[in-house]
Structures are given as C-alpha cells and as structure tokens.
Amino acid sequence: MAEYRTHMKIIGDILATTRDNLQDEDGATVTYLIRKANISHSRISRILKTLVSQGLLEQLAFQGSNKYKISQTGREFLQAYYTFTNFADNFGLSI
Hints:
- By secondary structure, this protein is of the alpha+beta class.
- It has a single domain (7-86), classed as Arc Repressor Mutant, subunit A.
- It has helices at 7-20, 30-37, 41-53, 72-90; strands spanning 28-29, 57-62, 65-70.
- α1 (7-20) crosses α4 (72-90).
- The longest helix is centred in the C-terminal third of the chain and has 19 residues, at 72-90.
- The radius of gyration is 14 Å and the shape is globular.
C-alpha cells in the first residue's frame, strides 16, 4: 500500500525543489513545481501562498507569470526540517 506524504513532507519537497532543481536563475514556475513536487494545482496554490506569507519563498513577477525562489529563511527552515527528520528517523518515527 502506498504511503501518503504529510503536509510537512510536501512543504519540504517544494522548498527543496526551489532550492535545487531550478531550470534557470529566475525561479520556478507553478507548473514546474507541480511536476517536480507531484502535487495538484489547487493544493500547491494554497501552499505557495502560505510559504510566501511566512517568508520561506519569494514570489517574483516574470513575463506575466509568477516564479518562486527559496529565501534565506526558507533555506534555514529546510535545513532544520532535514535535521529534525533525520533525528526522528533515528528513533523510528516518521514525520
């Protein structure tokens, strides 16, 4: 049976995608994030709005559409997320 991702795992995937997998320096488009993070458009729209409002992502207007880049705060959050995930895994817990 397939294991579903938690909301935190999805956020981690989105932040990691905007940090690592950009096809250019201008940021990631919503379509790119949908494909790479494997999430629906309606769900990612809500999550992106939250991540931007919390300062974890930067929203950039680019040629009539929005692109997203990870902020320094987002990088720090992602590092803390990975640290905590590894810690939890060592105790057999899943996040």
